[in-house]
Design goal:
The protein is α/β, with parallel strands linked by helices. 21% of the residues lie in helices and 26% in strands. It is built from six helices and 14 strands. The strands form four sheets. It has a five-stranded parallel β-sheet with strand order 6-13-7-8-9, with helices on one face. Strands 5, 10, 11 and 12 form a four-stranded mixed β-sheet that branches. Strand 2 and strand 3 form a beta hairpin.
């Protein structure tokens, strides 16, 4: 993981705190634009002259899987950060987990499929893609068909021109309130059984802080800005 850092933690400590200060394991929960203050999860406030919001994005989920459902269903993952990968690896090591399915045939979906394909405990991998071929945003039909055949030659099943309509689960046997992912019902009514699913269907902007602070946001997500990148609040 450390190899992914832009700079080691020691680099930040080497700078004078009046020029560069950093705070770990602390989250900004809101901004008070009228007071030029940001408020954190540790009940602290910091003043600013200019505030740059760089909160990134999170992995999206399909409409039939609300976030609260994903959280309480074992075997349901997204593929966005190191914690997601750690969770996938840990879950795949269970003896009952043999078949992994990836929803999404874009760059991230293929990367996720390759990640589980390389896991020794996973015996079968499938991809569900609503388009006619993988990488449809990057490739034309001819090139996409070549990629499709190459993936299938590896033993990966690729279901094209279809989408799941319902996630199928069973109740966990340990007495908890959790459910366990067991597959999908597809558009044609058929059932695609699997033990683990990774959703790689795109991203959604993290605009929670902006919304909590009264900044103008788009109904479909994201912070509304002008040509100068300024939000609806000054500074």
């Amino acid at each position: 993981v450390e190899d992914l850092y832009l700079n080691p933690p020691s680099w930040y400590a080497e700078h004078h705190p009046h020029r560069l200060s950093y705070h770990l394991q602390e989250t900004v929960i809101s901004i008070s634009p009228e007071k030029n203050l940001v408020h954190t999860s540790k009940h602290r406030s910091f003043s600013y002259s200019k505030c740059i919001i760089a909160t990134g994005s999170r992995a999206d989920l399909p409409p039939y899987v609300p976030p609260e459902t994903a959280e309480k269903t074992r075997g349901v993952f997204v593929y966005r950060n190191i914690a997601d990968l750690d969770g996938i690896i840990a879950y795949s090591e269970q003896p009952s987990v043999k078949h992994a399915v990836v929803v999404g045939g874009g760059l991230l979906g293929l990367e996720a499929a390759k990640a589980v394909y390389d896991m020794p405990s996973i015996e079968r991998v499938s991809i569900i893609n609503r388009q006619a071929y993988p990488l449809s945003r990057q490739l034309d039909a001819e090139a996409g068909e070549m990629v499709l055949h190459q993936i299938e030659a590896m033993g990966v099943q690729v279901l094209t021109r279809c989408s799941p309509t319902r996630q199928i689960t069973r109740v966990a046997e340990d007495g908890s309130a959790h459910e366990i992912f067991t597959g999908f019902e597809l558009q044609d009514g058929s059932i695609h059984e699997a033990d683990l699913v990774i959703y790689a269907i795109g991203i959604r902007p993290r605009d929670d802080v902006a919304k909590a602070s009264g900044l103008k946001c788009h109904p479909r997500g994201g912070i509304v800005i002008g040509d100068d990148l300024q939000t609806s609040a000054e500074n």
